[in-house]
Specification:
It is a single chain. With about 350 residues, this protein is mostly helical. It has helices spanning about 5-10, 20-40, 50-70, 75-90, 100-115, 125-145, 150-170, 170-175, 175-200, 210-230, 240-260, 265-285, 290-310, 310-320, 325. α6 (about 125-145) runs antiparallel to α7. It is globular. Residues about 30-40 have low confidence and may be disordered.
């Protein structure tokens, strides 16, 4: 990969003209912008040094929690959180390392939240305090370091705390799985709406906001998908042709939604249910389990790879069906074939 300095050195050496260098830079810039919109990029690792730093940081955080925890368990967790914050000051703000940023932000949020476990006896109040502290910790960490996953961590803490508090305080919910599944689905809709809000702030997908949206979509996916499949009886063990048809229809709708918003998390989250349903139905036809699973996995894998190859053409077709008032909030499909 050639840098701007390499291109400029070629101009200085008389290998290419300044006009050619300008045209080359513009061409590369236009390709990068189109790719940024059409692909679901997110930063996970910038080099093996990220893994090295993460391993060393985890050793330091765990040892700090154990040593200081000899005085009091909560103090150990708070000391670990303080250590995670201090490491973040260097490895996130100074070095801008991707994987350590994710791990250190999660370590800080979780350590702060769990510090209340040993201070509160009542289970409901304990769960509420954990979710509250985790959300506050996530907010503080986001304000300082702007790590995209922190927003999803805080949102997930609030959602889980709310759902578990309802589960404990209202016994009738425990005996009504469809009602609790509906509550999870509604929470998922709220998280999905928040993810779409962040997506709409950067439809060109060139800033940190699109990374925030990515992690929120990853959080919303199981909250939306799993309750739907539970409510149609996929987990009940009594699978039939009706469940198979419903699962197929739902997965097609999920694929269309994924194409529309250019996010694949929903499809990945529902993949296990599709495999389970179709494998179970093939087993009823006296097909050996390993063979039925292999057949379903082969067909589904081939279909997903085919969709991946024609993802941009499929998106262009789907976006043509949307009204302009909706399409302006959705990332455009700029890539041409091939």
């Amino acid at each position: 990969m050639y840098s701007n300095e390499d291109i400029q050195s070629a101009v200085n050496a008389g290998i290419i003209t300044s006009q050619t260098a300008y045209a080359l830079r513009k061409h590369i810039e236009s390709r990068q912008k189109a790719s940024a919109v059409d692909e679901e990029h997110f930063r996970l690792i910038t080099g093996f040094n990220d893994i090295f730093v993460v391993i060393a940081s985890l050793l330091l955080l765990v040892s700090t929690e154990i040593i200081v925890g000899k005085l009091h368990d909560s103090l150990g967790l708070l000391a670990s959180a303080a250590m995670a914050w201090g490491l973040s000051e260097y490895f996130i703000r100074k070095r801008c390392m991707a994987l350590p940023a994710i791990i250190l932000s999660l370590a800080f949020v979780i350590s702060v939240g769990l510090s209340s476990v040993y201070l509160v006896q009542n289970l409901s109040i304990r769960l509420f305090s954990i979710s509250l502290l985790m959300s506050l910790a996530a907010w503080c960490h986001w304000r300082r370091f702007h790590v995209p996953i922190t927003v999803a961590a805080g949102t997930g803490a609030v959602a889980c705390g709310f759902l578990y508090t309802l589960w404990l305080e209202f016994p009738e919910i425990q005996n009504n799985i469809p009602l609790f599944s509906m509550l999870i689905f509604l929470i998922g809709l709220l998280v999905f709406s928040l993810a779409m809000y962040w997506d709409a702030l950067d439809i060109q997908r060139q800033t940190r906001r699109t990374d925030v949206a990515f992690w929120l979509h990853l959080l919303a996916a199981p909250l939306l998908v799993h309750p739907v499949f539970i409510m149609i009886g996929v987990t009940s063990g009594e699978l039939g042709l009706l469940q198979m048809v419903l699962v197929l229809i739902i997965y097609i709708l999920i694929a269309l939604l994924s194409l529309t918003i250019d996010r694949r998390a929903l499809m990945v989250s529902a993949l296990g249910y599709v495999l389970y349903v179709f494998t179970s139905l093939l087993n009823k036809t006296a097909v050996e389990f390993t063979k039925s699973f292999a057949v379903v996995a082969f067909v589904l894998g081939a279909a997903l790879l085919l969709l991946s190859v024609f993802w941009h053409q499929s998106r262009r077709w789907v976006l043509c069906l949307l009204p302009s008032s909706v399409a302006r909030y959705i990332p455009p499909c700029k890539r041409k074939w091939p």
